[in-house]
Amino acid sequence: MKNQGFLYAILFSGLFLLNGCVKEDDLVQSDPNVKTTESFWENDNDALLGINATYGSLLTDGTYMRSTPLLLDLKGDDSRSQSPWGAMFNVGRFNSSIADAAIYGWAFETYYQGIYRANQVLENVPNIEMEDEALKERILGQAYFLRALYLFHAVKLFKNVPLPTNTDIYHEQKSMEEGWAQIMDDLNKAAEMLPVSYDDVSGRDAGEVGRATRGAALAYLGKAQLFNQEFEAAKGNFKKVIDLGIYSLVPNYKDNFTSENENNSESIFEIQFSRDAGGVDLGWGGAPQSAWGKTSARAITYAPRGFGWTDVQPTQTLFEEFMKEKTINDETDPRLNVTIAWNDPDGYSLYGQDFATFYAANPSDLNALFVNKYQNSYGDRENEFDWRSGINERIMRYADVLLMYAETLNETGDTDGAYTYVQMVRDRVNLPDLREIKPNMTKQEMFEQIAHERFLELALEGHRFDDIRRWGWLDTRLDWLVERDPEFETYSDGREYFPIPQTEVDNNPGTVQNPGY
Fold it and tell me: Distances from the Cα of 326 to the Cαs of 242, 331, 334, in angstroms?
């Protein structure tokens, strides 16, 4: 979290000879060919470049190129890992090592890179005399949103972390409660400053998709409040998202996970990847390089055997849960085959190959379950071995908001009202009407139903372990979780969070390691 100014030291030996001495200040001067922090923030274009760089931290290995989905998915009971890489294998077994900060340490570093960039925008853009004041407001709103989003991940994954609100070098470790308070404060500000859509603005950002909106800020604000059991407040913010009237579930569930249907009506916020932008190298992290592309390595990491590395696989529990209920036409839930690649008796095609034929010589793979969600398995790609997927990561979907709103209705005494919003998600995949098959559910019964719906609708999208933790199941249902996913056998208190990377403990005075490590 250090200020990286661009200063170039020049020694004027001629001046030394003429004047006999040189003051120390004369030896450090700005290179006129390189922008410094002091010279950069001058106009509208600089402000836009600054906020765009803040989004850029979402695209590298520590965040959504690869590491963050792994950290969010692997601890849930919907996924498992047999990766030969110990740092990845151990995530789902709650056994990440302080001695090896691979994956989790990269995430921590990149979150704070994004926070630092957001803080640069928030410190410098207010001082720019911009021609378009509305544009300035939107840029600042995006900076508040992105700072909150990076902190949202840092607090969820690492618990007690620094909460930088300026570009100073050192920031003391704060409590989780203080972290959530900062996140919610930033999101409240963002919600007030951001537009509902960029289609309705005038300015240099007009019509640009992928930027943070009021709906995204409100949805994450509600989710942060849900993590803190502030059900009444969360309910109000989810209702505001619904009342914006611009979001709807896409008819085909699959359209949320392909490159052909990005930024659709269901997407509230998504990470923008593209095979056509930038260079061809992956953004592994650190200082940006000109050859970096804007692609994701999620697909190859999760891909079925023979098409990628198969470091993540669905659990048998997830598969069986999909099989519990038929559609009104007595068919299997269509989300199953979008989520899981398997030896479907009715046939299953992936990457142009018939599943049963491709794995015929290997009985273990023939009977295995593989991830299909976010794979390029529907198009003309033969496999994922070039590492470069352009599929956007939809990190906040309207379906999630509908189910969270139903949860808050149930928690605040309106169990009957919760039926409506749960059923909206079920109707998309043609499941029976809950009011008919499960009328008059109690609050607890509705909670269990919502938990089931979230498990299936949002499987392998980084939500399940968040739900397990915020519902207190690590305390109340640990044996049940072990039955569903044996990786929970190695859970111990405190291991729901990752360790603070040792470099942070060493370099930031006063930092205390998380309990359990």
Answer: 28, 5, 10
Q: Where are the alpha helices (DSSP H) in 412-477?
A: 415-428, 434-437, 443-457, 464-470, 473-476
Domain encompassing residue 97: 42-279
| Residues in the chain with pLDDT values less than 70 | 1-38
Partnered with residue 350 across adjacent β-strands are: 353
Contacts of 205 (CB under 8 A, 6+ apart): 48, 135, 138, 198, 211
Whether residue 211 sits in one domain with residue 110 = yes
Beta bridge partners of 271: 393
83 inside domain: yes
Same domain membership, residue 250 and residue 169: yes
pTM of the shown model: 0.93
CA nearest to 139, candidates 37, 212, 36: 212
Q: How many CA atoms lie within 13 A of 44 on its CB side?
A: 12
pLDDT digits (tens, 9 = 90+) for 336-391: 999 999 999 999 999 999 999 999 999 999 999 999 999 999 988 999 999 999 99
Question: In this structure, are 374 and 442 located in the same domain?
Answer: no
- Residue matched to tokens 């640069």: 120
Helix 398-411 vs helix 231-243: angle between axes, to the nearest 10 degrees? 140
